[in-house]
Amino acid sequence: MRVTSRARDRGHPVPPINTQVFLTGIRSVCKVQLRFSHNHHQRRGMMMRGKLLIACVVALASVPTAASASTAELTYPTGTRLATGNTLKGVNTGSITFKTAGGALLWECTTASMTGTLVKNNGTEVEANVEALTMTGTAAESKCTSGEVTGNKKVTLGVAQGLPWCLKATSTMKEDEFQIRGGKCSEASRQINFGLDDALGECKYKRGEAIAGTFTTEPSDAVLSVPASEFVKESGSIGCTTAYRIEFSLTLERDEEGTHPVYLS
After folding, report:
1. How far apart, in whole angstroms, are the C-alpha atoms of residue 109 and residue 79?
2. How far apart are CA 235 and CA 244, in angstroms?
3. Which among 100, 94, 211 has a CA at the least distance from the CA of 148?
């Protein structure tokens, strides 16, 4: 998510400000001016330096911070805001891994596909209802591979408090952050439930808080990356792992034939 300062000139937004470069420029100018006042105005040096210091502080304080001016906007093609109601899909980049807290690999899926509907995209907030998600692997019956005694796993989302989920990015979040939580975006937040089936039956897992990840910004395609996010066992046989951490990345696209990546800014 980029820090932007939005104004309008004949209906067109001002290009985003690179805040870091702007701050560096202000600091450099202030440093030079303070040195000049010290070397060339000996009698009034203290007074001028004081005035310049105040001016620099005011200038620096007026620059928007990431916390107060971060925005999220989904575009397709680049620079054109994508209308709500469009169907989005997420296609995995790399494997989807399930690991222990110590980082040992439990299961691995090679393919993931997510679809949802864009319900908000107003220039500062993006929200989409995730309605379908599949994760498959290279084992028999497209199960995700496992080195465990209980064998390969089938990922199931058709469990109580499974889908739909809400995927969102707002100005109240950290820079370049998105979150996924249980329930539609128009509903109250709830936990996320996940099912993993093996030879011993179904293992049901839950996560009470939202999953937090990061996204890449324009001009790159919108790639959503989820770091190791823990789910704990809610029910299942004694053979079910007590907890796991899932990690994956998805490229967001328009859900239509061909490849049509969208962009986040």
Report:
1. 34
2. 14
3. 100
Is residue 79 exposed (0-12), middle (13-18) or buried (19+ Cβ within 10 Å)? exposed
The structure's pTM equals 0.73
**Strand pairing partners for 196?**
155, 203
Strand, coil or helix: what is 105? strand
DSSP designation for 261: B
Phi, psi of 163 (to 5 degrees): -70, 155
How far apart (Å, rounded) are the C-alpha atoms in residues 170 and 184? Answer: 16
Evaluate the omega torsion of the peptide bond into residue 219 and state whether it is cis, within 30 degrees of 0.
yes
Among candidates 147, 136, 86, 87, which has minimal Cα distance to 111?
Answer: 136
Q: Tell me the residue ranges of DSSP E strands in the chain.
A: 8-9, 12-13, 74-75, 87-92, 96-99, 105-109, 111-121, 126-136, 145-146, 154-156, 165-169, 177-182, 192-198, 201-207, 211-215, 223-235, 243-254, 263-264
- Give residue-wise pLDDT tens across range 58-97: 444 454 444 444 679 999 988 899 999 999 999 999 999 9
d(CA 133, CA 112): 7
How does DSSP assign 129-154, residue by residue? Answer: EEEEEEEE-SSGGGPBEE-STT--BE
Phi, psi of 250 (to 5 degrees): -130, 140
